[in-house]
Amino acid sequence: MNLTAGLRKSASFRGARVAMISGEVCLTHGDMLDRVSRLASSFRKLGVTPGDRIAILAANGNHYVECYFAALWAGGVAVPVNPRGSLQIPPGAVSQIPPPARQDKVIVSLPLFHGQELQRPL
Q1: Residue-range domains of the chain with CATH
Q2: Which terminal Cβ of the chain has fewer Cβ within 10 Å, N or C?
Q3: For residues 69 and 43, what is the distance between their CA atoms, to the nearest angstrom?
Q4: What's the pTM value of the predicted model, to 2 decimals?
Q5: Each residue of 71-104: pLDDT tens digit?
């Protein structure tokens, strides 16, 4: 049994009940299952293979939770990257974020960067 089995089970028993409220977003257990499974499928299409480390740079919220579980569902290993304890990353700080010790893919929540473009791949 892996952690994503709980998503499937909760969706089968509580599909229409609220699972998460993040800001203005309200997701049911069924919504979460659908969003995570679709994101996991996208990860696999992007080349994620079992055992790949997927670094996640995102603020707390539904996007983080979805990326975390989708990484596991796709067979990867979720590697949380601290967004420096803030929802706002100052201009220029993106290029100074050290990469995780080893990652195969990086998922970045773009609202953290207030429209900044990534100057280099993480």
Answers
A1: 5-113 (3.40.50.980)
A2: N
A3: 11
A4: 0.73
A5: 999 999 898 877 665 445 555 555 555 555 455 6
